[in-house]
Amino acid sequence: MNVITTDTPTHDDSLQRLETLADISQRLLEKARAMGATQAEVSCSEERGLDVNVRLGEVETVESTHDRGIAVTVYFGQRKGSASTADLQEGSLEATVAQACAIARHTEDDPAAGLADAELMATHFPDLDGWHPWALGAEQAVDLALACEAAGRGADGRISNSDGASAATAQSLSVYANSHGFIGRERSSHHSIGCALIAGSGDGMQRDGWYTSAIAREDLDDPAAVGLRAAERTVARLQPRSLPTGQVPVLFAAETARSLIGHLLGAVSGGALYRRASFLLDSAGTQLFPDWFGIDELPLLRRGLRSNAFDGEGVATRDSALVSAGVLQRYILGSYSARRLGLKTTANAGGVHNLRVAANAGDRASMLSSMGTGLLVTELMGQGVNGVTGDYSRGAAGFWVENGQIAYPVDGITIAGNLKQMFAGIEAVGSDVDVRSHVSVGSILVGKMTIAGND
Description:
Elements: H1 14-34, E1 39-55, E2 58-76, E3 79-85, H2 90-105, H3 138-153, E4 159-178, E5 183-199, E6 206-214, H4 223-236, E7 246-252, H5 254-267, H6 270-274, E8 295-297, E9 320-324, E10 327-328, H7 335-341, E11 355-357, H8 364-371, E12 374-381, E13 391-402, E14 405-418, H9 419-424, E15 426-429, E16 439-440, E17 444-452
Parallel strand pairs: 7-12, 11-16
Antiparallel strand pairs: 1-2, 1-4, 2-3, 4-5, 5-6, 7-17, 8-9, 8-11, 9-10, 12-13, 13-14, 14-17, 15-17
Helix pairs in contact: 3-4
């Protein structure tokens, strides 16, 4: 439960700052038009943040940031040029547009280039509750990080060292505008507290940690609870064993399960598809998962980590299925990749919004019970995934499970398979969702994978 009670700022000038960015974007569009561009788009952003790090009870770093950026893209027919700046002086803004125009004049025609179609622009902008700035001062941020680390270090005598703790807050303002007359404004905030600890000594040392993150500070876990969770996870990894090579069921804990969804997203994204660099070419409309499996995209979810009424091109977003009854319903496309593929944009320029993977099982304990004997994966290492073939091989650590109960920790192993077969072999998705990601998914049980260890 949260006990953080810092007041929000008494004066919030974010709306005025958004209007300033909107005015700049309109001036830039007018300059692009005056220089002969047939189409143009402008992205303006401003970010402010505070990030503190402590270790062993001492402050290591305090970093305050205030960044801004302006990007201009112009089209001369189907020739494209882009330039960016962080300088708001009128001369610099004009030079940025001129540079983008000069680049466009010297590029070749690209039949897929251009803004998204005008009729697709968003016209409704609901409040999605993504703006919760936190008036977190450096001293209090240090106190929160120290409290988190102290709770973890004091939780168990086997905690021998610390890799540090942190507290951070950030807020972002952005405006996207284009020559269709579209202008979209967005305010977002994000806060986090985390801790990493070390247990044991010598060759037997183990490291792990935990963190909490949220859009609103009241949704953060208490710093002490985060430290205690970090300590529990670290101590649980002491005296690990390896495993003999074989094929066993593998339960991906929620914090690792979302990486499986990430591999799916990469394979069905427009860039991979039009480059013919995906193991899921021509897979829309085909059965990839069990018939109970589903993934919905929910861009209009209130207080969602990736909620927005429009994508990176101004296209209106809407709730839609990515996977339904195990069948891939569509790809993930912006207007450029859609044109390259002869399809229509799915309002995913800039990436996916909030994804929710349907659960068909209970919490982790019930998932372990249903697995019986197998491997629980709590950490993945390495990048051994081939996006063209779907071959999967990654280092892993976690726990060996016998009779539905954790028997002992394991590390120094590799898990391997093929993503197509792994997707088809998913037996259950748990309700133990890790809420720290825009991919909302619980633990995922894959019926059989190859594990290789030293035993």
